[in-house]
Amino acid sequence: MKRSAASTLPLVLLLLAVVKASAAATGGKAGAAEAEHAANYLVYVDPHPTGVDCQSYQLGILAAALASEAKAKAAILYNYRNVMSGFSARLTPPELEAVKKQPQVNRVLPSATLSLMSSKFDGVS
């Protein structure tokens, strides 16, 4: 069965549209998959210099690691300055590695929420 060029063209265009849509969907899923692997971390840093705002100092460290102040503002969850110097942030694995390379960063730990298994402790309710 011979097909004319006029009847083949719509099939080719349809095939190209499906391939393009599939590639776009895969690209979107790759970005979403990376975001799904993001986790919360506690980042311990050197104390901020005298006269420098603590939050600005810590945001600057994260912005340098992520190469964007906007990304840093979106990632940072909380700033710590009284008991420790640091912040918590939601980071993907590549972002985590970039943060660890910053000279002001002393330690990075996964954030964890702990809860009591019982309300009774040594007879206290």
TrEMBL record:
Keywords assigned by UniProt, alphabetized: Signal
UniProt protein name: Inhibitor I9 domain-containing protein
Record-linked InterPro entries: S8pro/Inhibitor_I9, S8pro/Inhibitor_I9_sf
Domain of life: Eukaryota
Source organism of the structure: Miscanthus lutarioriparius
Signal peptide: 1-24
Domain Inhibitor I9, residue spans: 62-116
UniProt xrefs under PANTHER family: OS03G0838500 PROTEIN, PROTEINASE INHIBITOR, PROPEPTIDE
